[in-house]
From TrEMBL, chain C:
The chain crosses the membrane at residues 53-74, 86-107, 127-151, 172-205, 225-248, 277-297, 335-357, 369-390, 402-421, 457-480, 503-524. One of its GO terms (biological process) is transmembrane transport. Its main location: membrane. It comes from Streptomyces alboflavus. GO terms for cellular component: plasma membrane. Keywords: Cell inner membrane, Cell membrane, Membrane, Transmembrane, Transmembrane helix, Transport. This is Iron ABC transporter permease. It is a multi-pass membrane protein. CDD domains: TM_PBP2 (cd06261).
Amino acid sequence: MSTIKKASVTAAAVGLGLVAVTACSSDSGSKASDSKSVTLVTHDSFNVSKSVLKDFEKTSGYKVRVLEDGDAGQAVNKAILSKGNPQGDVFFGVDNTLLSRALDNDVFASYEAKGADLILPQYRLAGGEKRVTPIDSGDICVNYDKKYFADKKLAPPKTLDDLIKPQYKNLLVTENASTSSPGLGFVLGTAAKYGDDGWESYWKKLKANGVKVVDGWEQAYNEEFSGSAGGKKVKGDRPLVVSYASSPPVEVLYAKPQPKEAPTGVATGTCFRQVEYAGLLEGAKNEKGGKALLDFMISKKFQDDMPLQMFVNPVREAAQTPELFRKFGVTVDKPQTMAPKKIADNREQWVKSWTSLVLK
Amino acid sequence: MTATRAKSGAAGAAAEALLRLEDVTVRFGAGAALDGVGLDVAEHEIVCVLGPSGSGKSTLLRVVAGLQGMDSGRVVLGGRDQSGVPAHKRGVGLMFQDHQLFPQRDVAGNVAFGLRMHGVPRAEQAQRVAELLDLVGLPGAQKRAVSALSGGEQQRVALARALAPRPRLLMLDEPLGQLDRSLRERLVVELRELFDELGTTVLAVTHDQGEAFALADRVVVMRDGRIAQSGTPLEVWRNPADEFVARFLGFDNVVDATVTGEAADTVWGKVPVPEGTREGTCRLLVRPAGVRLVGARDGLACVVAARTFRGTHVALQLEPLGGPRLEAACALRHAPAVGETVGVAFDSGDVVVLG
Amino acid sequence: MALPVAFFGVFFAYPVAAIVARGLKPDGSWRFGRITEVLGQSDIQQVLWFTTWQALASTALTLLVALPGAYVFARFEFRGKQVLRAVVTVPFVLPTVVVGTAFLALIGRGGLFDELWGMRLDTTVWAILLAHVFFNYAVVVRTVGGLWAQLDPRQEEAARMLGASRARAWRTVTLPALAPAVAAAALMVFLFTFTSFGVVQILGGPAYSTLEVEIYRQTAQLLDLPTAAVLTLVQFAAVGAVLAVHAWTVRRRESALKLVDASATVRRPRGAGQWSLLGFVLLTVALLILLPLGVLVQRSFDGPDGFGFLYYETLRSADGGAFLVPAIDAIGNSLRYAVVATAIAVVIGGLAAAALTRRAGRLVRGFDALLMLPLGVSAVTVGFGFLITLDEPPLDLRASWFLVPLAQALVGVPFVVRTMLPVLRAVDGRLREAAAVLGASPLRAWREVDFPLVRRALLIAAGFAFAVSLGEFGATVFIARPDNPTLPVAVARLLGRAGDLNYGQAMALSTILMLVCAVSLLLLERLRTERTTGEF
């Protein structure tokens, strides 16, 4: 008996050593606390051109580590949970639907990025908020399948009001507001447009007009929508989908060969504006590096690069909109907007009402 | 057969004992599997521990092998106390009851196992394996799968495997237990000859007295974790120490007796006892050979209850008018039929007073 | 024993306990009132009810469909069996987002059922159940089939000689012998379906919600930690109850089995009955597994200019793609993570199984059950737990790549333990003693005796752990990681973007993932049979 015990102890010691060695070696490899590197915590959709990032690394002397932490909601929540002992130096990707929660939890340290004065006024936060800096914006809008409407000789819808008209019955697919970010944005847009009292009756009509709800953007856009590349393959039968204003140019960009015209269009009167912010994390180990990274994110270079990397609009004055967007995209003049505070206060209640109204 | 081997010394000569057990006790729960056992095995001696199942004989082997811890006592091998020496460093061989050949290795892999563990060079291993397979009568079986071997062949491989590292002491646990009778009788002779030839020191356990008597220089009978009797096969056969040993050896003619002078009073009538028997009450054994058939009126009258043919003789179950049944051995030609009434007389030479 | 306990303590129990405590003890005092409050809500009750019954129904259906498969794979010899066995395991490792898409081709709009019978099952509960069968088919085939192949057919023959009908002989002899394996498979399937996330979302639509989805929503979206904590506890309670039932049935049934070499029980099917059974199983596999997988492959080649390798070629370029690195790099990342995760799972699981074999008692059985818990606990709970616990040196692993394989290993360990335990228990202790007496130290005895006997099981276990970590999505996305996406993460990300190329590349990467998985499993199977024919 004792010999057997000894054997398992030996084996355990060997195994423990193994794990310890791997853990240590990996640990030392990933130490980010030295002043030579700066860590950006962000969500899964973050992207930047390699050359642009290299450029920053060269001029600033910092090596950038990008840490992706799940979808936007999850990334923000994790930043909140790890406040004071953050995983990195800068956080990017908190949008107006989540901003209040992050600010209320004191995740960010105050810092006014160099060049903040060049940010377009419509993106600036009320009260001169210094803890976060707007980086990009995007619009959640209904997209339509151009071919469908041309074939049917039907004018595509333009506004939220159009969507409840009988000629568009059973054409729209949207996403679950409780799990999908465009789904939530669309609901917030209706709330902004019809007010606290009116949005529910709007949805009642929308439901009566045959709106379909699926769980995520992927299913809505790639499976149900008839205008997308994926939807065409699987014979999607909904010509209207809640997606982004940038989706048509993206369809063009990722098509080979490039078509002359985008296969889809945007109903510009259905849009809700999303703005994404970045901020210096409270307790950042490399505060100086973090500040430099924030400055970089609203620099012309990054702002010019961003649209084609993340398919969003720049927030900086005179930043160049890429040709692709100008040619195939639309400008949304009067999107619905809502103050972050109001979103934070009502979000849960609205989603609850929406769920029982539309899904049950 | 039993006493042909030249012994290097009297059994129990302390100075020369290769293996010595001193007051070994092993407890499982409330009961003791070994209860203060002391035993010496001299070099080149073959000792057979005999006992019914549950008498603690397998535990004895496991204690010596180091597979089983002791509650108290000492195991001394070649003059060295073995406490704290793990099984793989004791240098003893053990052949398991059901062989325990390694199923995933072939015959050569099994036999060479111990050699590999002792770092014997490859070429030497192969040579020794061939040698041993010759010795156990399986030449050229190296590449055979153990699952394809018959019981007897497996037993031979197990033996070759145990012998391969030249253990100081070879222990056999029911070596022939699972084999059929004729094979067993042949193998026991072969084993005896082999051990004589190699001069191996052997400690074997078995529940089969025939096997023990054929194999051993000395027989140790165990009962409930204690040693009931120890001696040469002949001594034990002739003079079982007590009724347990007698009955274990297959002798069932045991009765209460009161000795007066040269005879004893029993329910079977007067039975002559050997000279010099102490007077008083005792238990008395009459070996079947000492139960002589006489005319129905000349002795104790019995009815023949059963007859069993035993090859060289016939074993009779006799029902006397009073007292327990008697077993008698008689020649084939004179055997009475079942139901006949016969007379019985006793020979003092086959009467044993039990302790 | 010490190492597995430490591993589970540090990387599972502590993080999960911490996140639950954060929810229920927000300011230093416990708020157990939340429990009744949350459980009192009718929508939560509905979620609970649905989660439980769909898991039970899925488990039953999977067993029903897959048990004949287990028999066929165990007992029949037919061409392409090895490849097929690897292929049926593929769904198990594919990310749900991909599989959901493919599965719609079977049961959704314009799918096979729709074309043939005008039947659409998407957004019905049937879609969820069938997809669960699709996912877990291999679990049953492998766990049950492995044992079935080694059951001595003479036992059943003996029963038939004693006058039992074929069905009766099966019920009275084979089924009880198989019971532990069936129970183990059922347990795994239940745990997987109980915590189902993607399948329910994609195929069931937003009307169906499981506990797992609700925990995700409360934690990752709403940051309502108290509610999430209560739901996690509920999940624990449910999983614990199932584990207890499992342990109880297995203990009652566990008996020494006479096992024989698998190759001895395999034969070509004979007679109309056996051929039609084989045909039925092959048809099920073709319809339920090959067809959806085939659709993925077809889509990966179906480019704008007809069939071609366009999507595969573009995987190699980094510019304009969804990543900082070429998408093709994801293959290397996935393999690297999978190797490390498998190594951890095999070391931890192997030690745990060895410890469990050599000891008995209530405590050990409790540990046995504990090892299964990670399968029944939400990945988001573990991921968030990691964040708030592994944040101080020397265990500040939050930003380390090592955390990903570690989390994957949590899922792999139960497989290793489940597969190794029965075999280790079957190794005769006296073989070890025989080796010891012949001069083998305990470690050497393990290597010489146990290892060759359990190598087969170890390889199967390692294969499962490898496949699981290759396709692992949940734990991976809930952990912060540097920009080296695994295949499933890359696929999900590509699908999250508009455009033909992205969609096509997602299909191409999925096909590659399938291929990598199938090849790894096949290699393993090869390795296994080569060795075993040599030594068994």
